Amino acid sequence: MNNYTDILRAHNLKATPQRVAIAELLYLHGHISIDSLYEMMLKTFQSLSLATIYKNINIMVENSFIQEVKIANIKSVYELTKESHSHLVCNKCQNIEDISLDLHSIMSDASKEYGFRVNSTDLVLTGFCKNCA
Amino acid sequence: MNNYTDILRAHNLKATPQRVAIAELLYLHGHISIDSLYEMMLKTFQSLSLATIYKNINIMVENSFIQEVKIANIKSVYELTKESHSHLVCNKCQNIEDISLDLHSIMSDASKEYGFRVNSTDLVLTGFCKNCA
DNA sequence: CTGACTGCAAACGTTTTGCACGGTA
DNA sequence: TACCGTGCAAAACGTTTGCAGTCAG
């Protein structure tokens, strides 16, 4: 478990218990929706307000501490910001897995063939994971 | 301009003037948000209801006549269903461009390294387009 | 002619806002 | 202590629903 108190402060965010909990849950589960986050945190913070979740998620996204992951047909989930990676989404177990794929050739194709200067990539592969295939 | 009356019928959709207009606008502009679509169509259909847009977009997505395109930091847009392709999103002019990239090697990497059976890909490249770079 | 579509208004779920209180730094 | 964050309630927003009238096939 990392020291999210300091990491939060490094992102100009006060380290409240609620924020530390969000960071830890995202670290442990990888990708979580707003609803699930609220549900999980209610066990620890009985008087937690959904508004607090939304306010924190928004400011954490603005400060690049976390990122929204948009996936077709599924409601958005959030993840801790980390090095560039792609996502595998299983159609059966609904699990979302991080993967590291080499996209350099694709980025250079986009550059050569379309004159596009790529800053960031967002790749989601949908199908069946190892266990469900 | 294609014959959207017949194409709509082929998708089990009655060819109402509103639906034909949606199809034509998507064909002409490529990618349009719900709001823009409503705004554009109001010029032709003064008494158009937003509810009609939503109902039609939903049924057209269900029937695979059109598809939603989810892009980070931007509200969803819709496009006519066509062969698999990727998207370029320009950070400056906000334009969304369709591109055809060969993703076979990436799909096979995902298969070899993660045992994942890929059914569909969703790739968005963000950066600067030819004109804005 | 019949079922499906439209437009309107109301309902609904999600997200945001304002404010008083409490906690972090 | 000063400011920022929290929780609550209300408001705002986007989307869906029900219904009566209309239109496509």
Q: TL;DR?
A:
The structure is a homodimer of 133-residue chains. Chain A is an alpha+beta fold and 133 residues long.
Give a description of the structure.
The structure is a homodimer of 133-residue chains. With 133 residues, chain A is an alpha+beta fold. Chain A folds into two domains: 4-80, Arc Repressor Mutant, subunit A (Orthogonal Bundle), CATH 1.10.10; 86-127, 2-Layer Sandwich (Dna Ligase, domain 1), CATH 3.30.1490.190. Helix content of chain A is 40%, strand content 26%. The first copy, chain A, contains five helices and five strands; from the N terminus they run ααααββββαβ. Chain A has helices spanning 4-10, 17-29, 34-42, 50-62, 104-114; strands spanning 66-71, 74-80, 86-90, 96-99, 117-128. In chain A, the strands form two sheets. Chain A has a three-stranded mixed sheet. Chain A has a two-stranded antiparallel ribbon with strand order 1-2. In chain A, β3 and β4 form a beta hairpin. The longest helix of chain A is centred in the N-terminal third of the chain and has 13 residues, at 17-29. The first copy, chain A, is globular and about 55 Å long. Chain A starts with a helix and ends in a 5-residue tail after the last strand. The relative contact order of chain A is 0.13. The mean pLDDT of chain A is 96. At the A-B interface, β1, α5 and β5 of A face β1, α5 and β5 of B. β5 of chain A pairs antiparallel with β5 of chain B. Chain A binds a DNA duplex (25 and 25 nucleotides) through α2 and α4.
